[in-house]
Write a structure and sequence with these properties.
Shape: elongated
Largest sheet: none
Distance between the termini: 37 Å
Number of strands: 0
Helix content: over 70%
Oligomer: single chain
């Protein structure tokens, strides 16, 4: 196999692998968003913010006040994206030119 063909195949396989990883990771994001939206529906936004803040405070070793802010931003982002107003595509498009 020529060097050109070998390089082409390596690049092709790297691109396929990268696309598969992005797909897997985006499913994880969607799954987490799904669970947050279900929790909000079942328990209300305030309860979910408090629960998430406790988790963040424990995992990151920060105060509840700091964790509450992070939780609120995180949930706000999920709610924004679930309404079809996410920033991801627009950010990617603006970088593509």
């Amino acid at each position: 196999m020529s060097t050109t063909t070998n390089t082409y195949l390596q690049n092709l396989l790297a691109g396929i692998y990268s696309t598969m990883r992005i797909g897997r990771d985006s499913l994880r994001v969607g799954n987490d968003g799904y669970h947050l939206l279900c929790a909000i529906q079942d328990y209300g936004e305030q309860e979910v913010v408090i629960a998430l803040a406790r988790i963040i405070a424990d995992e990151e070793g920060i105060s509840f006040i700091e964790a509450s802010s992070k939780a609120a931003y995180y949930i706000q982002g999920v709610l924004h994206a679930s309404a079809g107003n996410g920033y991801g595509k627009r950010a990617r498009d603006s970088l593509a030119g």
